Amino acid sequence: MGVIIKQSFKNLITTYFGFAIGAINTLFLFTYFLEQEYYGLVTFLLSAASLLWPFMAFGVHSTLIKFFTFYKTKQEKDRLLNLILFLPLLVSVVLGLIGVLSYSFLIDYFTQGNGLVRPYIWLIFLIAFATSYFEIFFAWSKLYYKSVFGNFMKEVFHRFCISLLLLAVYFTWITVHQFIYCIAGVFILRLIAMMIYAFSLYFPKLDFKFPKNLSPVLKYTSLILIAGSVAMALLDLDKVMIEYFMPIENVAIYGIAIYIATVISVPQKAMHQITNPMTAEFLNTKNKKSLEELYKKSSLNLLIVSLLIFILIITNVKQLYELIPDEYELSILVVLLISLVKLYDNLLGNNNSILFNSDYYRIVLFIGVLIVLVAFVLNLIFIPSFGIEGAAIASFIAFFIYNSTKIWLVHKKFNFLPFTSKTWQVLLMGGIFSFGFYFWDFSFHPILNIGLKSILIGISYVGLAYFLNFSSEVNDIINKFLKIKTS
User: Fold this and answer.
1) 3-state secondary structure of 286
2) CA angle 422, 483, 304 (to 5 degrees)
3) Banded model confidence at residue 20, pLDDT cuts 50, 70, 90
4) DSSP readout, 161-225?
5) Which has the closest alpha carbon to 320: 162, 143, 445, 487?
6) 88 partner at 20 to 30 Å CA-CA among 291, 355, 388, 434?
7) What are the CA-CA distances from residue 262 to residues 101, 169, 255, 331 (Å)?
8) Domain of life of the organism in this record (predicted)?
9) How many helices (H) and strands (E) does the chain have?
């Protein structure tokens, strides 16, 4: 358990560090060093690759973690690993052939939309392929409880490399066209490093025989493929559809708002590493009381932390946009709606862990597919009418329906909800802070304004949450922090 906690803490620090580098890239380096349409092009290529790579990976990265310990002999484990290695390659070849056969259609599509994309279509496939195998080798390392290097490569490496490439563009060491190709090279380099690390932990013997119990393995892989595709589609569908209906620079503008709001998701990612195995244990032992307690506590604690980040974003977003070029400024409504989506995700607590570790995950997958279709239709309706704001509205509605349905499903099957009386008190406090500080600005430089306002909000929010005793876990953390500072 000590190893897990230690690595979780390191992963949390790494994730925040990666987000910090990404924020510098997103808000400043891209906006000042790259033309707007090329920033939009990069955002589109990465989003399109994010939609494609789950299909290439075919869900085997999750299958590997689930089934590896089921096999006891080295021979059977090697057979599973060989299946994991070659199945995505076969799928990628099939998808590649489909891409080649439909190349003329793709050319016509991007000529009608944004011709700037045409020369780089094949990079979508290349980045997706590199990402899919990176995730496989990352899962490979997790089998031996070695996640720190993989998490660093996933969260920090490519963002840092992109920072260097952007500086190279600024100093005219490379052209913008070379920059785009180099980004694909970064993903390939990341894959190679992860592959070498995974093979250093365990190198399987080549064996072309299938492992035992192949049927449940392939069945689970197919279901996880659907789950992963649904998750990525909900995250990146709107950016890809903006590219079709609007000039490509709008993808960059929308991408900035998305990145700002995504910071709210970090606490949920960190807590998931701890709550997911606990949830599985409580489900397996049928410990319904502890499961309900974990559900409520995870929801409340994530809400308290993520709501503070939400308030800091909403109340400082005007000053934040003063720091970037005027052409990237957009409606505050976009940031608000996407931030509310991320806040609602945190409010769910360990809801996803409950559903995907139970016998009801097939229902969630079916609902997820329907929600993707709903999101697609909503984007078709709202983007032509309302532009970028339409994409945000479509995403908000789709996620609201999806998250509300998952809360209803857990209530229907397990008869408990994540909310307590403290939930509504925290939300009320958050509403008061958001409205109160949004209209209160200092007449200083935006950076100084953001700093002063954030300090005031942070001290007031944490102090009030502490004295109102919303969460014993949060209060314990504050007590430990104060004890360290006063010792």
Assistant:
1) coil
2) 20
3) confident
4) HHHHHHHHHHTTSS-HHHHHHHHHHHHHHHHHHHHHHHHHH--PPP--SPPSSHHHHHHHHHHHH
5) 445
6) 355
7) 37, 27, 10, 17
8) Bacteria
9) 21, 0
